[in-house]
């Protein structure tokens, strides 16, 4: 008697796929070009990438730096923000947003987020302003654009600097305006998992101000405008030639990759159980760096998905006021705290197929049924 054939295991679904595919040859050529040049830091590749990224981002100037955290911090320093100053930061974000504030000597103040889109709530921002507040740093979290018009109104009403954390929002737009172009400038990250990722770390600022761009070029290089003359106490935050060349090779595909992310998000929004979407309103300019859902008993849902070989992650499990590093900062953020307890990010990257996304939707539906219907 022939034994029964055991059912095949489900095909694994990684959270993200960082393997180079259609851009492999271009990236290899970019690397070889830099190696052959013998120039590895702050050279022609960085200058070319800065011009190309500025054009893609709809900004007059871009300055490459070592990472997205430095990009935020350097923008704050360019606005002369430092010890004794307060900076408003959303209560739900990567901790690096707030860490960038502390790097300047300023104090982060946490502002609660909108219950649906989980970006900074403008009304709560207005309530958080004090005589020490100098800046607002909204985050375009998950690639969802923050509500910039009312936030800009708060900034203008109180004479505050507005700096955008665009580290998860390459090519995003708010009501047609590119992110990073509303206030003093925008900070971008090119960490490998980002919508435009390097093969290592990297970052950039964009700004409409030549004065700001020139100062950040000086600050990123130890405060030097002229070699060996340090006009101020800068830092070492230089985008290297290899990463700049790699980003130049990948940048022309960013529009296509963004369109694919939007298509996958549409699949998720159409086929996931309505309750897990958290009622999040979608804006036309969102770029879906991540696709978070809201689920009860998250550990049960995540374990159910893992049993089907579907990898998920949590962005972010600890609200900013609850991070030990920020014990002394003010801001209660109950909405952010609730979200930190039930958000779960599903796989989403340009090489994910519709069929796999549909499978994820089906497994999520089963997992939610096991965990209990969302309220």
Q: Describe it for me?
A:
By secondary structure, the chain is an alpha/beta fold. The protein has two domains: 24-252, Type I PLP-dependent aspartate aminotransferase-like (Major domain) (Aspartate Aminotransferase, domain 2); 254-371, Alpha-Beta Complex (Aspartate Aminotransferase, domain 1). The protein is 38% helix and 14% strand. It has helices spanning 24-37, 44-57, 68-78, 95-103, 122-128, 148-158, 210-219, 241-250, 254-271, 298-307, 334-342, 354-371; strands at residues 61-65, 86-90, 107-111, 133-136, 161-165, 173-174, 177-178, 185-189, 203-207, 224-226, 229-230, 291-294, 343-346. A seven-stranded mixed β-sheet has the order 1-9-8-5-4-2-3, sandwiched between helices. A two-stranded antiparallel ribbon has the order 6-7. α10 packs across α12 (354-371).
Key descriptive features of the protein:
375 residues, alpha/beta, Aspartate Aminotransferase, domain 2, Aspartate Aminotransferase, domain 1, 7-stranded mixed beta sheet, two-stranded antiparallel sheet, 13 strands, 38% helix, globular
């Amino acid at each position: 008697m022939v034994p029964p054939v055991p059912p095949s295991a489900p095909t694994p679904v990684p959270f993200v796929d960082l393997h180079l595919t259609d851009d492999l040859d271009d990236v290899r050529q970019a690397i070889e070009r830099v190696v052959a040049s013998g120039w590895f830091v702050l050279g022609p590749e960085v200058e070319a990438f800065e011009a190309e990224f500025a054009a893609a981002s709809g900004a007059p100037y871009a300055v490459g730096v070592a990472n997205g955290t430095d990009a935020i911090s350097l923008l704050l320093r360019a606005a002369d923000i430092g010890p004794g100053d307060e900076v408003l930061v959303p209560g739900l974000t990567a901790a690096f947003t707030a860490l960038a504030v502390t790097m300047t000597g300023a104090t982060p103040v946490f502002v609660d987020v909108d219950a649906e889109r989980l970006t900074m709530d403008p009304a709560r921002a207005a309530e958080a302003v004090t005589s020490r507040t100098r800046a607002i740093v909204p985050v375009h979290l998950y690639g969802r654009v923050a509500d910039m018009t009312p936030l800009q109104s708060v900034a203008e009403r109180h004479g505050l600097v507005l700096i955008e954390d665009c580290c998860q929002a390459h090519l995003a737009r708010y009501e047609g305006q590119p992110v990073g172009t509303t206030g003093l400038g925008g900070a971008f990250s090119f960490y490998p998992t980002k919508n435009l990722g390097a093969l290592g770390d990297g970052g950039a600022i964009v700004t409409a101000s030549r004065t700001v761009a020139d100062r950040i070029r000086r600050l990123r290089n130890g405060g030097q405008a002229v070699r060996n003359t340090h006009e101020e106490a800068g830092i070492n935050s230089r985008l290297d030639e290899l990463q700049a060349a790699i980003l130049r090779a990948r940048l022309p595909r960013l529009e296509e990759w963004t369109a694919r992310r939007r298509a996958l998000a549409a699949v998720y929004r159409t086929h996931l159980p309505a309750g897990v979407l958290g009622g999040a309103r979608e804006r036309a300019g969102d770029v879906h760096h991540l696709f978070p859902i809201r689920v009860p008993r998250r550990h049960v849902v995540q374990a159910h998905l893992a049993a089907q070989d579907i990898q998920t992650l949590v962005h972010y499990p600890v609200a900013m006021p609850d991070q030990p590093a920020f014990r002394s900062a003010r801001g209660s953020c109950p909405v952010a705290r609730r979200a930190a307890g039930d958000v779960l990010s599903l796989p989403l990257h340009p090489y994910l197929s519709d069929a796999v996304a549909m499978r994820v939707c089906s497994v999520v539906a089963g997992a939610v049924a096991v965990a209990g219907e969302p309220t």
